[in-house]
Design a protein that fits this description.
This protein is 28% helix and 27% strand. By secondary structure, it is an alpha+beta fold.
Length: 208
């Protein structure tokens, strides 16, 4: 009976030690994970909120972002006592501000995919291209090839010359340059990410 009692006590102590070890390990993991998160996201950012654009005409720009890109107007704070408009769509906002010195705004030049731009993912590149042709919007067609992966891109201007890109960029995997963690986009299988990838090739076609 005494030996059985001692065995039970030893078992209880072993269980307590195991539980304590697990708790300590989890605590250290939380601390280290928190430190790693701070290094990767020092400003604790969560998402892109909006893009603010100067424009020559609020009405013309609103028409473009509503009828071409599918944004919808939303209410602006009444404290903003200058001419402008807010729109929302696709998870981000577009804030339009009428330029006070419109003659100083950059003029619309030729479409250059290497210029500053904002990019939108789409469901069908063919449908987008057909719609741009119907609306008689000039665009440039471009293609990026990475191994067996192909990304199609369409570039065009808003009324003030700001570049817009429509693409199926979700086909391209996201591979961090630092760290062992590898993420894949929704349409790419993980095994595609670990294969050696050749140099990216870019082809460009201009549509008048």
């Amino acid at each position: 009976y005494i030996n059985l009692h001692h065995r039970r006590r030893r078992c209880i102590w072993v269980v307590f030690l195991l539980i304590g070890g697990i708790v300590a390990f989890c605590f250290l993991e939380v601390i280290s994970g928190s430190d790693e998160g701070k290094r990767r996201n020092p400003l604790h950012l969560t998402s892109l909120n909006h893009v603010s654009l100067l424009c020559r005409s609020i009405g013309e720009s609103m028409n473009f972002y509503q009828n071409v890109l599918g944004f919808f107007p939303i209410r602006r704070p009444e404290s903003l006592n200058f001419e402008g408009a807010w729109l929302f769509g696709h998870g981000i906002g577009i804030h339009l501000l009428r330029a006070l010195e419109r003659e100083k705004l950059p003029k619309k030049n030729e479409i250059n995919p290497k210029d500053n731009h904002i990019s939108f993912q789409c469901e069908s590149m063919g449908a987008v291209e057909k719609k741009l042709e119907e609306m008689e919007i000039d665009y440039v067609r471009s293609k990026v090839e990475e191994g067996e992966i192909q990304v199609d891109q369409l570039f065009f201007h808003d009324p003030d010359g700001f570049m817009i890109e429509i693409c199926n960029c979700d086909s391209l995997p996201i591979v961090p340059l630092v760290g062992g963690m590898v993420r894949s986009c929704s349409r790419v299988k993980l095994h595609q990410l670990v294969q050696p990838q050749p140099q990216t090739q870019i082809n460009q076609v201009v549509h008048p």
